Amino acid sequence: MSEAAPPVAHRPPFGWYVAVARRPLARNARALGYGVRSLFYASPLFRGLKARPRPLANAPVDPWPGDATRGRAIIGGTFSFAGKTLRVAPPGEGRGAGARLWAPANVGPDWLAALHGFSWLRDLRVAGGEAARDTARRLVTDWIEDNRRWRRLAWRPDVLATRIAAWIASADVITQGAEPAFVQSFLSALTAQGRHLLACGPGGLSGGRRLLVLKGQVFAAAALMGGGRQLRSALARLEAELDRQVLSDGGHIERSPAQQFAVLRDLVDIRSVLLGCGHTVPDTLQHSIDRMAPMLRFFRHGDGGLALFNDSGEGEAWLVDMVLTRADAPGKPLHSAPHSGFERVAVNRTLLVCDMGAPPPRGAHDHTFAGTLSFELSVGKERMVVNCGGGPGLGAGWRQALRATAAHSTLTLADTNSTEILEAPGRGSEIGKHPVHVTRERSEDAGATWLEGSHDGYLRGFGLIHRRRIWIAASGEEIRGEDHLSPPGTDGDGAAAASGRWTWRRNRPRNFAVRFHLHPGVKASLVGDGQAVLLRLPSGAGWRFRVEGAKVELEGSIYVGGGEIKRASQIVISGGVTASGPRPGAGVRWAFSRVVENK
C-alpha cells in the first residue's frame, strides 16, 4: 500500500443497489419511511425550531474531559474534526458568514457531522473564562439562525441526538451569565429538536448509531419532557435494541473495538441521566454495561489502546480507562469470545488477538472490514504486528483501501477481498459476498495455545478455503503459524467438494500473499539471504521472522491507528497456487521468535 495512492478495492457494477436489496425488509422500510417524511420536513409546513420553551430539569453536567487547546482554537475560529483542520468565519464576520461556518467547502460528511454535533462544547468548557462562554453562546445562536429549517445532515437523527445531548450536558456553560432572551431562544430550539427526535426515531439507522439516537431520546425525555410516558417509551425501545445488539459474551454486534468503546460510553451516559432524575435503571441496561466492560478490556493492547479490527483506531488509553472506571464493571476479559468471534491469548508479556468470526448480520455492516482471520501481536506496551486501522475523516479512497483484506495481517488470494465491500458516500456501507462458514477452535497443550480457524470467503470465487493455524508457546516468545488454501472437503470442513472443484476449474487464481503489517515503531530488515526478517522494537528487543514454502519480502505500508497516516513496513509472503495434482491449492509456514541477546 502506498502512502500517496491507496489501492481501490474492486466494486462490482450496481453493487450498492444489490446490497440495498439484501438488507432486511424492516430496515429498508424504516429508511423509506424516513425518506418520505423528509419531504415534509424539508417543506415550509415543518415547524423547524419553533416550540414553546421547556425548562431543563435534572440536566446532567458533561462528565467527559475536553481539550483546552482545541477549545482555545475554537474561540479563534479554528475547528479540527475527522483529521482535518479548517479556519472558518466566526459569526458576524461579514455577510453570509453563517453559511460559511455551517457549510464550509471541501469537507466531508464526517467533518460536518462533528461540527453540527456540538460535542466540542466540552472543549470550550475546559478552556474556561468569559471568552469561552461567549463563543459558545454566539455559535449556538448562529446555528439556530442558520438551521431554522430542516437540513438533511444537520437534522440527521444521530447528529441531532448528539447535539441534543451536548446542549443539555453543557447548558450550564451556555446559559451562565446569558441574557434572558438568549436563554429563551436556546430552550425553544432545544425543545423543538427534542420533540422532533422523539417523533422521527432513528430514520433507518442501525448498530451503534441507532443506540446513539436512543441516547438522545432518553436525554430529551428525561431533561426536557419531564420523564413520564415518553421516557418509558424510549427506555422500552432501548431495552429491545440492547437485546439485539449486545451479544452474550459482551461484544457489540458490529464487531468493532471502536464501536464497543463508543456504545459502552453512551450506555454509561444513559445510566447517569436516569440516576440523576431518580429513575430506576433497567436491568437490561445494567447487564449490558456489566458485559460490555470486560469485552472492552479484551480488545486492549499492553499500551492501553484498542486493537485495530473493523474500522477501529487505538483511541486514547486514558479515555478508555475513564470509560471503564465510570462503567464500574470490574470483570476480567475473556480468553475466548465465541459470540463475537475473537480469540485472545496473553502469555507473559505477549498478547495476540485474532479475528476468527464471520462478518456481522445484515443491518450492522457500517464498520465491517475484510479482515477475517487477521491477528494483532504486541509485546508488553509495544505493538509489533498490526492491521492498518480505520476511523473517520480519511476520505472515501483511503477508507475503501483500509477496508480491504490487503490492509490486514492475513492471507489475500488473487488480490481479492475475502469480504466484498460495497460503499456509497453518504449512504453507509453494505457487503456483498463474504465468509459464511467461519470455524474456530482453541486448545491448550503443556501451557502452549493452539488457534485453528477457516473461512469460505474465497469459495464462491475460486473454490478454495483459507485455513490458518497459530501456535503460541508457553513462554510467549515464539509464535508459529500455517496458512493453507485448499478445496472444500479436504480437511473435514463439511463443505461440498464438488461445487468447489467446479468453481476451481472456472477461476484459477495464480497467486496469494500473506501479509504481516508492522507498527511504525518497528524496524525491519531482511537477513539470511532474504529468507528471514529481523525485527527491532522501540525498546531494543529483537524478534526474528522466518518462513517455509514461499519467498518473503519487505514492502511499504501505512498505519492510521493513531489517527493520522504514518509510513510503516509489512512482511509479505507470496507464492503461486497449484491448479492440479493430488493437492491443489497452496500452503506456507511461518514463525516469530524472540531473539536472545548475547551479554
Largest sheet: 9 strands, antiparallel
Q: List low-pLDDT spans.
A: 1-21, 94-98, 492-505
- Helix/sheet category: alpha+beta
The number of helical elements comes to: 18
CATH architecture annotation name of the domain at 352-594? Distorted Sandwich
Report the CATH topology name of the domain at 352-594.
Beta-galactosidase, Chain A, domain 5
Portion of residues in helices?
A: 25-40%
What sort of overall outline do the alpha carbons produce when their principal axes are compared? elongated
Number of separate strands: 21
Distance between the termini: 39 Å
What is the CATH C-level name of the domain at 352-594?
A: Mainly Beta
**Rg calc:** 26 Å
The whole-number mean of residue pLDDT values reads: 87
Strand content: 15-25%
